[in-house]
Amino acid sequence: MEKYAIYVPRLVKKEENFAPGHRACIGCGEALAIRQAFKALDNNVIVVNATGCAEIFSSQLPLTSWQLPWIHTLFENTAAVASGIEAAYKAMRRKGAQLPENTKVVAIGGDGGTSDIGLQALSGALERGHDFTYICFDNEAYMNTGVQRSSSTPFGASTTTSPAGKNSIGQFSWKKNMPAIAAAHNIPYVATATHGYPFDLMAKVAKAVATKGPAYVHILSVCPTGWRSPTDTINRQSRLAVQTGVFPLFEVENGVYKMSVDMPVLRPVTDYLKGQGRFRHLTEDTIALIQQRVELEYRKILENVKHGSKAAKTQG
Amino acid sequence: MTIKTGIEVSIALADAVKMCNPDVVAAYPITPQTHIVEHLAELVANGELDAEYVPVESEHSAMSACLGSAAAGARTFTATASQGLALMNEVVYVAAPMRLPIIMAVANRALSAPLSIWADHSDMMSVRDTGWIQIVVENGQQALDNTIIAFRVGEDQRVLLPVMVHLDGFNLTHVIEPIIFPTQEEVDKYLPKNRFPLPLNPDRPVAMGDFGPPAIFMETKWAQQVNLVNSKKVILQAWDEFDKAFGRKYMPVEKYHSDGAKVLLMTMGSSGETASVAIDEMRAAGLDVGQIRLRLWRPFPFEELREAVKDADVLIVIDRAMSFGGPAGPVASEVKSALYNQAKKPKVVSYIISLGGRDTTIDGYKDIVKKGMEIAAKGSRNEFEIYGVRE
Q1: Which residues of B touch A124 (CB under 8 A)?
Q2: Does residue A42 contact residue A65 with C-beta atoms inside 8 Å?
Q3: Which of B3, B17, B212, B299 has an alpha carbon 20 to 30 Å from B348's alpha carbon atom?
Q4: Chain B partners of A95 at a C-beta cutoff of 8 Å?
């Protein structure tokens, strides 16, 4: 196992598609996750970027951090723009235009651009079956505009529009289950990943992009600014999210669920919550409620995995 | 050989698009543009048009898909109307400064509320300042011709701008007219291949749509203005060469018995044809009346307008949209602005007519001219007049 850990990093290419020198905050998990994701890919990729942190910190005129063809238009239309590019390549290639081989379209957006304002366009693109990959870099709030809640903000987190107060526990609703929404479109590939598990992340992104048809990867990206956590703990936070069951890592291939990192015993959620200022105000009762919910959701996925392996066996 | 066919204008427009050989058509259905994209879907389904037809889930996504498609270097078409155009609005703004030659037919229709599916120009006015080239047509033949012209102008390397072809909903889209079709060879000769200079391509990575800090933003906006104004030369040239190739001449401001006329009626869109009949009858009755028709809405043809009205005493401008609480109809406001600093200028009377599909008849136009002349002579308490409304 130790040898494997030494060997695997050597397989990662040195070349960067996402150059250093961008303007992300110190300790940005999203910038790290983007770098990992695009390291997993060759250069035959067109990137479509929703408005959000990544777009702002990588593209200020007249500079760019992208070594790939890259386009940003608006907040909510990323999946639709990607649809248009994919359709254009299909038509132009069919008509004999000289285009690079095997060009893939990768759309990226934050949790707001994905689970809130861009959900309609994403749903439309997934339903129409365009051959593209959508990656959501989920830092669990509108970080770019100053830490306002999104539908992907976890229950109990204090943000500037769901502040904790005398009459408020912070975010009042449970995190929207985007991977399940994507999977409900019956697309060939859905996965969750986080930068604390870099090789898992890279493998999943590579797999998603190689998939024919729509693929969706949901990547938890720690935001020390918005999470009120120390900047040197982003990978620890990312791994704790997985180890506590708050953010399970799994794949859904053609409807079949598979756990990527199985936790025989989940660590208590407090291990994850206590390192983040956004949860500082939570009472023991609320934490117990979160613990309950996390276990319930985790069991649901395990059930799906069990069902999936049964289905795979009967098919196989 | 050219053929004259009796055909619904929407179908003819779609056939014109087919002859331009687009790569991508993305659209969401909205009345009254539906027949255009339905026919294109049919042509693709039957293998008569080799294009990707993307049936998107909203107009916002229709324009977004077009944006992606044009950025990838593909020839791109869509159509919309009214609320659809309003929903697209955000993306419509993006297409022009990104220099993406998307061609869009707008079947002009009133904006809600109250809900109306019939023609007026309120949707057109809602996108006035989006930076698109905007051509307004009066009949089916013009719709077909200017669709072909739009591809040539928009994709010209000196222009690279999106183009709207405005045609009035129902009054044009749903009527059957005798239309002369060019042959495919003629269209191929007139319309060069799309050569988008820097498309999204992994062999040559470019960044599009970056964010512009205050240090650079204003320069980009000024560049956009210069670009749009300069496109007029190319539009005129394209119209000129269209005339040479097909024998039909288009001008930014078209004149109808207007030279030397003391009273001018200015129209835009399909109402111009009914107005022309009224002008004929008034001239036969000895009135010194002429008509001018605005064909090019953006870039606004200042010179041509000033030249066309220089000898007139009265200019009655017909609008099919309101500017609530404003100085006049939107077209009349622009006309007034264009003439304000001229030493010699006609008195401008603003008339709003035919909102939400209300008919204005030949007698109506005669009435408007008569009342307009009275207002020019005696003045009015109103900033603008609304015709035929029951108060």
Answers
A1: 56-58, 61
A2: no
A3: B299
A4: 23, 50
- The answer to whether residues B134 and B298 touch, using CB atoms and an 8 Å cutoff, is yes
**Distance (Å, rounded) from C-alpha A292 to C-alpha A107?**
34
Structure tokens belonging to residue A181: 């929404």
Half-sphere exposure at residue B11, Cβ-oriented, CA atoms within 13 angstroms: 12
What is the SS3 assignment for A116?
helix
In the block, residue with structure tokens 């394209």:
B238
Helix locations, B22-58, DSSP H: 34-45
Whole-Å CA distances, B125 to A32, B69, B129: 46, 26, 8
| 3-class secondary structure, A171 | coil
Give the chain A residue whose CA is nearest to the CA of B216.
Answer: A61
Q: How many CA atoms lie within 13 A of A163 on its CB side?
A: 5
Q: What is the pTM of this model?
A: 0.97
Residue bearing tokens 């077209």: B331
Q: How far is CA B377 from CA A45, B314, B380, in A?
A: 68, 9, 9
Of the candidates B328, B79, B101, which has an alpha carbon nearest to the alpha carbon of residue B195?
Answer: B101
Cα separation, B102 vs B82, in Å, equals 18
Question: Cα dist. B294→A226, B173, B255, B328 in Å?
Answer: 54, 19, 9, 17
Each of the 391 residues of chain B gets a pLDDT tens digit; together they read 567 899 999 999 999 999 999 999 999 999 999 999 999 999 999 999 999 999 999 999 999 999 999 999 999 999 999 999 999 999 999 999 999 999 999 999 999 999 999 999 999 999 999 999 999 999 999 999 999 999 999 999 999 999 999 999 999 999 999 999 999 999 999 999 999 999 999 999 999 999 999 999 999 999 999 999 999 999 999 999 999 999 999 999 999 999 999 999 999 999 999 999 999 999 999 999 999 999 999 999 999 999 999 999 999 999 999 999 999 999 999 999 999 999 999 999 999 999 999 999 999 999 999 999 999 999 999 999 999 999 8
Contact criterion met (CB below 8 Å) for A92 and A99: yes
User: How many Cβ contacts (< 8 angstroms) between chains A and B?
Assistant: 169
Query: In the 8-state DSSP scheme, what is residue B191?
Result: S
**Contact with chain B for residue A66, Cβ under 8 A:** yes
Q: Tokens at residue A13, please?
A: 């290419």
* Per-residue DSSP letter, A277: G
DSSP characters over B218-282:
HHHHHHHHHHHHHHHHHHHHHHHHHHHHHS----SEEEES-TT-SEEEEE-STHHHHHHHHHHHH
d(CA B233, CA B229): 8
Q: For chain A, where are the E strands, in sequence order?
A: 45-49, 70-72, 104-110, 132-138, 164-165, 168-169, 189-194, 215-220, 250-253, 256-259
> Which of A53, A72, A89 would you mutate first to test chain B, the one with the most B CBs within 10 A?
A89
Secondary structure letter of residue A102 according to DSSP = T
